[in-house]
Every structure is written in C-alpha cells, then in structure tokens.
Amino acid sequence: MADTITLYQQALQLLQQLISIPSFSKEEDKTADVIEHFLQERGVITNRKLNNVWARNKYFDESKPTILLNSHHDTVKPNSGYTRNPYDAAIEDGKLYGLGSNDAGGCLVSLIAVFLHFCEQQNLKYNFCLATTAEEEISGVNGLELIIPELGKLDFGIVGEPTLMQLAIAERGLMVLDCTAHGKAGHAAREEGENAIYKALKDIEWFRTYRFPKESEQFGPIKMSVTIINAGSQHNVVPASCTFTVDVRVTDAYRNEEVLELIREQVSCEVKPRSIRLKPSSIDKNHPIVQAGIALGRTTYGSPTTSDQSLLDIPSLKVGPGDSARSHTADEFIYVDEIKDGIELYIKMLESICL
To answer: CATH number of the domain that 38 lies in?
Structure first.
C-alpha cells in the first residue's frame, strides 16, 4: 500500500499526461489507453468496453457490499477565450492548467489513487469497483450507462465531480419535453379553423404556474420552463399546430416517469420526452459515507448541475476536488493542493466505514 504522498505524486503525473491528450466526448480512446496502462503497471486487472475502463479490488468478495468509485475522462472542446495551450499541463503558482484539469481530471486521478490505496488491502468491509468512463459531457449512451450491467451489484457510489470536496447529496434530473398542440387550419379573415396557438397558450400557462405537491428538502419545487415555441406559416392562415419545448428540472422527490405521467394527465397537448434517462439522484444524509464526510467538517448541499450520477439507480454521493465554477472556462485549472487534500479526504471518509 503506497503512502498518500506517493499516491498524490503519481496522480499528478497521470493527470498531466491525460491533459496533454485531446479526449473530447466519443474520442477518448487514447486517454482510456493511458488509464488502462497506468492501472496494469500497478498490478491491477482491468476491464474495458469501448473507452470505459473499470477494475475491482484484489480481494473482491461477492458476499460483501460494493462501493463504486466513478469519474470521467472526456472533456468539452476548448472555448475561444483560451490564452494558453489547453493541452500544456503546466504548473504555475500552485495551479495545474489544462483542459479537463478541473472537470473532472482532478477528481478522476484522485479516485484512481484512492482505489490503489485500498486495492490490495484484506478484510475490508466493502469491495471497491473503479469505473473511469467516457461521454459524460454529452450524456452519451456509450459511457457509464453502457457498462453498468457489467459492474455487478453496487451498494452506493462516489461520483467524482468538482465540489470543493463538499458533499452533494442530491442532484436534479432533467427532462426535455417536445409538446405539440393540434388545431385545424383555416382562413384568418373568416374565423375558420381551430387556432393551435390558443390551445398551446393554455398549456404553456399551466407549465408556468403549476406546483407539484411534493417538494425536495434540498431543492424545493420542480422547475419547468418553456424555452422554445414555433407556429404558423403566414399571416392569414390559422395555424393547425403549435410546438413548444419545456425544460423540466426534476428533484429527488419524484422519478422522471411520475412527473411525465402527471404532466400528460394535466395538459391537452401531445407530450414527447426526448429522454427520461437523466434521473434525479440522492443519498440519505444519515448514510455512513455522508456522516463520515460531515465528521470531517464537510457540508451537504443539493447540486444544480447534472452528471453521470443521473444514470445510477443506487444511492450516490457527488464529491471531488476542484470547483464547479471553473468547469468549461478558458484557461481551466485546478490547484495541486486540492488534489492532494482530495485524496487524503476521500481515504479518511472511506477508511471510517471500511476498516
């Protein structure tokens, strides 16, 4: 078992190597190669499917519960505001610069270090499953979702995203709804037809004002926003259809399927979800891993951003080094001390429940 300083040094070198390799969503094969090789060099038996790499601890015991350690190695594309080379992983004034350094490279290499810390330990109360995954930035189907069936039974997860090592115990889900109000075309001068815009307006007003009965302790009410509307072809024709789009931020008080069913019961328009995959998620504040973090001075909150946590059907905690406010920004960086402190804090939290 390596000491935390050695783990930190290895993690920092790995992150610099990953930053130097472009790894946009769906193009992560080279960073997957690096991660796979890094683990194998340290005696870890790895599994791979497309650009996802995962592994289990050496003394994996089917009779014990399993903790998932997950983060992603894909990045967004660098924006036009960059003044530095996004692939130059330089360290200056305690900051490691580079695309993906903060989102979510620091979290990724920290969790890899944590996995290595526990990998060869015997008599742990939990198994460990490390999953380094692809396509998180686009909520793609060939990332974590692709390999979940192959990971086996999981009891809870730690999802590495930059949270300043505070404890995100809930995360909003997302549904985008394409709605169509149907009418009947006619000549506007003769008041013919049935105006689909007027029918849509009634439903749009419902989306604007409706309040779901159950509210989340972390987030309050579900938020619904009409964001796009289209109708009509020319000034003198009553439109036969009106389409509009609704952004629905689902809380942990409901499942996406419940929200969709209730909406369809209340409105007259046709409602088609683009997807119900991005589920709200949460973990009980009294869960041992949350209590372990609180005991170490961490605070709990509800995260407004969506991550791969939305693909999990198990309790999961989102926590990691770095700051979400730096994600996707020009000249992205993470403080190297955040990585060091993150590894130490992850290990302390997990030791308190595993030893």
So the answer is: 3.40.630.10
